[in-house]
From TrEMBL:
Residues 382-598 form the Histidine kinase domain. SUPFAM superfamilies: ATPase domain of HSP90 chaperone/DNA topoisomerase II/histidine kinase, GAF domain-like, Homodimeric domain of signal transducing histidine kinase. Its EC number is 2.7.13.3. This is histidine kinase. InterPro entries: GAF (IPR003018), GAF-like_dom_sf (IPR029016), HATPase_C_sf (IPR036890), HATPase_dom (IPR003594), His_kinase_dom (IPR005467), HisK_dim/P_dom (IPR003661), HisK_dim/P_sf (IPR036097), Sensor_HK_Regulatory (IPR050736). Keywords: ATP-binding, Kinase, Nucleotide-binding, Phosphoprotein, Transferase, Two-component regulatory system.
Length: 599
């Protein structure tokens, strides 16, 4: 029995250790050692991290006769690995001399007689692979040990996802703080020299590049002239001489033409594979990759910022491009104002008013960024400290109980565990609400459309919240049109998320013995859904902010303040709309429409 090998308490303690770590490397090492020493008693346990090219590179191991970091697994050469990736589930070869799917070179190198392979799934994608085997002998591993190992891998997957989310939030905070500092510093830079020094300082941090050039655009001549440079590879004089030799114009450089005329940034990873840029200029400076940003002030482009990669190619992420553009945008106004102040012969009074107005705008932006930064910091702190560890531990415990490892369960117990598991999964999904909202705002969120019976979605949502309904002794009434075809083409999980948000709010704000009603209506290829409650209602002065992110109408009720904001965006992404009617003390009715997706 598994309990003879390792107690449930020990498994729980290992889970707490994993979730107390804040470095991915430490988590993976604890993870590997625990599987080897506490669960399987296998000779060798190795974790292989997925690479950008689809291969898997050795990362962590308990003990191996070779350096695991030198091992590389190519799914093209390993059928066993391909099966694991295709099914996204564990696989076991009891005898490698009979089952030949394993890469034979790896089998011989590590003397593998039998092997267990488990995928580490993070955010529905394979993050890495775990392999468990003995050295030179068949494994003596039981089905129970396999199940516990899989459960432990699932717990580690959640911990890895939380660490990645934490790192992403940290990076976002660092970027916002950098933008905040840059904006503030630029607002205090009144001379051209100060603006340029401030710009180069913060753009080097934002872009990770030491080569940054500012060019001014001569609208009359259509030429691009070198203005100011920050570089360790070329001097200012050399830079200007080479520019004079090339004589860049928007006619001989299509890339600059698009950036200037369309007022949008561009990034090219291989400049010679792209026909738009002036290749002669790039050969002269040995440029392999480049980012270009327009400097826009008062609606016009008066220059561009070029950030090349000298001597080697570089890949650019969209987030990097957007961040550097933000620095350029803040600089454009400050630089334009400074140039205007130093070159135009206006009165001191007129110049003072213009600079004061610019500073007021920048100071307003600083205050707004500071406020947003405080909200974000508070939210992340609450999320990471109050939710991550207990939810992960509960999920692991429920998974183990559901597998029957601690004993057989009767049907009622299984039903309760099923409800608990679904509720825990929903709670874990809420940890991703902020990331979902950010993706929506950046236009990177994609729906996964499938055909689904909407009545069944309603039933599933009711099933999930039934325990909450029973606990408050509420009455839940469902009025659906059973005689009508209720199949719709939607993202089922996101529609379920919307219903659960609306039902959860109704339950929170409805007193005991109250009534909640769900109504659906199909008409002209349009589905209308209504969620009624006779709860406390929403005060009139707060109704305008109901769909605003992080806003809570009742601060006495715990929550992130994101549920309705995300629901609104999800409904609008589906092509529908959401609204509500509410009177204080008389309850609320939330309504939304969705296209059915039928011709």
């Amino acid at each position: 029995m598994v309990m003879e090998l390792m107690s449930f308490q020990k498994l729980f303690q290992m889970t707490k250790v994993i979730n107390s770590q804040f470095e991915l490397s430490e988590i993976l090492q604890v993870f590997v050692d625990a599987i080897a020493g506490e669960i399987t008693q296998a000779d060798l346990v190795g974790f292989f991290l997925k690479q950008p090219d689809g291969t898997f590179k050795g990362d962590k191991g308990n003990k191996l006769p070779v350096d695991i970091t030198e091992l590389l697994i190519d799914p093209k050469e390993d059928e066993f690995v391909r099966d694991i990736l295709r099914n996204q589930s564990s696989d076991y070869i009891s005898d490698t001399s009979v089952d030949l799917r394993l890469d034979q070179s790896k089998r011989q190198l590590l003397k593998i007689k039998s092997i267990l392979g488990i995928p580490v799934i993070v955010d529905n994608e394979v993050f890495g692979l775990v392999f468990v085997h003995d050295f030179g002998k068949p494994m003596n591993i039981t089905p129970e040990q396999m199940e516990v190992t899989e459960a432990f891998v699932n717990m580690a997957s959640v911990a890895i996802r939380n660490i990645r989310m934490f790192e992403q939030r940290q990076l976002l905070m660092e970027k916002q703080q950098l933008l905040l500092d840059a904006t503030k510093a630029l607002s205090e830079s009144l001379s051209v020299k100060d603006v340029l020094n401030t710009f180069f300082h913060y753009m080097r941090k934002a872009s990770g590049s030491k080569d940054i050039g500012i060019h001014l655009y001569n609208e009359k001549e259509h030429t691009i002239e070198p203005y100011q440079l920050s570089s360790e590879n070329v001097t200012m004089d050399e830079w200007k001489v080479k520019h004079r030799e090339v004589k860049l114009t928007i006619e001989n450089d299509r890339l600059l033409y698009e950036v200037i005329t369309e007022k949008k940034s561009a990034a090219i990873e291989d400049v010679y594979a792209d026909p738009r840029p002036n290749h002669k200029a790039f050969v002269s400076f040995d440029i392999k990759s480049i980012m270009v940003f327009p400097l826009v002030a008062k609606g016009s482009v008066y220059g561009v910022v070029a950030i090349p990669s000298i001597g080697k190619q570089r890949k650019y992420e969209a987030s990097l491009l957007e961040f550097c553009q933000s620095i350029s945008d803040a600089t454009a106004t400050a630089l334009s104002n400074a140039q205007h102040t130093e070159t135009l012969d206006h009165s001191v009074h007129e110049r003072s008013i213009e600079l004061q107005q610019a500073n007021f705008k920048l100071e307003g932006l600083v205050r707004e960024l500071e406020h947003l930064n405080e909200l974000k910091s508070d939210f992340i702190a609450t999320l990471s400290h109050e939710l991550r560890t207990p939810i992960t531990a509960v999920k692991g415990s429920v998974d183990i109980l559901g597998k029957g490892i601690l004993g057989d369960l009767n049907e009622s117990q299984k039903d309760l565990l099923d409800i608990a598991a679904k509720s825990i999964d929903r709670l874990l999904d809420q940890v991703n609400e902020l990331l979902d909202f950010a993706k929506m705002e950046n236009g990177k969120f994609e729906l996964m459309y499938t055909e689904a019976d909407f009545n069944e979605i309603v039933k599933e949502s009711v099933h999930i919240v039934q325990s909450l309904i029973n606990k408050k002794k509420l009455v839940l009434v469902v009025e659906t049109e059973s005689e009508i075809d209720s199949v719709v083409r939607v993202d089922k999980q996101r529609i379920l998320q919307i219903l659960l948000n609306l039902l959860s709010n109704a339950i929170k704000f409805t007193p005991p013995l109250g009534v909640i009603t769900i109504k659906t209506k199909f008409e002209d290829n349009l589905l209308t859904v209504e969620v009624h409650d006779n709860g406390i209602g929403i005060p009139l002065e707060k109704q305008k902010n109901i769909f605003t992110k992080f806003y809570q109408a009742n601060n006495q009720i715990n929550g992130t303040g994101l549920g309705l904001a995300i629901s609104k965006q999800l409904i609008e992404l589906h092509g529908g709309r959401i609204w509500f009617d509410s009177s204080e003390g008389q309850g609320s009715v939330f309504k939304f429409t969705l296209p059915t997706g039928k011709e």
